[in-house]
Design a protein that fits this description.
The strands form two sheets. Strands 3-4-2-1-11-10 form a six-stranded mixed sheet, with no helix packed on it. Strands 5-6-7-8-9 form a five-stranded mixed sheet, with no helix packed on it. By secondary structure, it is an alpha+beta fold. It is built from eight helices and eleven strands.
Length: 311
């Protein structure tokens, strides 16, 4: 009986660890979503190894514990890759952004979402699945008179970019046929500095190779932009996943070291960050905070502060 339990437990732990270790062999799209939970799976596996060793006294669980701890350590170290240094040039100007996937069906919370947007004192606001707030656009327009999306630049109402300053060269783009019109780009004049704003809502990573392809297309878009860049939105993937790491490296983007968890809501701070805020110099990301309330959405919103300098 003891041998049978040891075999069952060890096979379950090995399967879990292999699922998050395969990334080191090949970046396979079917496991991309699992890779977002590398730290969570490795921690649970380590705890299971300790419990199983205490009960079953098999040396195999010591080896599996070592495997788990190595994966934990790498998951933690990846949080610090691409981290902002927080350093900015003299004369840089402050800028605040709010980014929030409000959930398309969440129309009953439209007024509460509008309250949160106005209370944020953000200079610009990115809203994904913005159909939920269509009823409060007139109210928001009093503070944010310039927008892209929901009838401006496109008839669709998935992406919505709001700004206190005029939006120049504003456009909605498509990164793949799976996610139609889910990339927004614009420029604003920040007291003489041209700031590039970019907003995305990417497809889920387990839909074949589309997530990686969308990131590749987005990278090409960002590389062609000159000057400071702010990018945010719903990426449906954690920043530790291989395609996200390639994307941040190629586009020369920085993030905060430990991004606030935004999904799933019930997990609270123990969830994962699939909504991100990135910056490219001379835009310096200073901080990212999670909204205290999800306001009826299945994501938490984010508020980010930057310092923007001229090139």
């Amino acid at each position: 009986m003891k041998a049978r339990l040891s075999c069952i437990a060890s096979m379950a732990i090995i399967a879990a660890l292999f699922s998050i270790s395969f990334r080191y062999i090949k970046d396979f799209w079917l496991l991309a979503f699992v890779n977002s939970f590398q730290l969570h799976i490795a921690v649970v596996a380590a705890i299971a190894c300790i419990i199983c060793f205490c009960l079953l006294r098999s040396r195999l669980f010591i080896a599996l514990l070592a495997w788990s701890l190595v994966l934990c350590a790498h998951a933690v170290s990846m949080q610090y890759d691409f981290a902002t240094d927080g350093q900015y040039l003299a004369g840089a100007k402050p800028f605040r952004l709010m980014s929030f996937n409000v959930l398309r069906e969440n129309r009953k919370s439209a007024e509460s979402i509008a309250d949160a947007v106005l209370a944020s004192e953000a200079d610009a606001v990115y809203i994904m699945e913005a159909g939920a707030v269509r009823s409060v656009l007139a109210r928001l327009q009093q503070t944010y008179p310039y927008r892209l999306g929901c009838g401006v630049g496109t008839p669709s109402c998935d992406l919505l970019m709001l700004s206190k300053r005029p939006l120049r060269d504003a456009r909605i783009g498509t990164l793949s046929f799976v996610s139609q019109e889910r990339a927004g780009f614009a420029q604003i004049d920040l007291d003489g500095v041209t700031l590039n704003l970019a907003q995305v809502h990417l497809t889920k990573p387990y839909f074949d190779e589309y997530h990686a392809e969308e990131l590749s297309g987005l990278s090409r878009e960002l590389i062609n932009l000159k000057g400071p860049v702010i990018l945010a939105g719903d990426f449906n993937s954690a920043s530790v996943v291989p395609d996200m790491r390639r994307f941040m490296e190629n586009a020369q983007l920085k993030k905060v070291s430990w991004e606030p968890a935004t999904w799933p809501i019930k997990a609270g701070r123990f969830g994962i960050a699939i909504d991100h805020v990135f910056a490219r110099k001379p835009a310096t990301l200073i901080s990212v905070q999670r909204l205290p309330n999800n306001l009826g959405s299945n994501h938490y919103g984010l508020i980010a502060d930057f310092m923007i300098a001229a090139e």
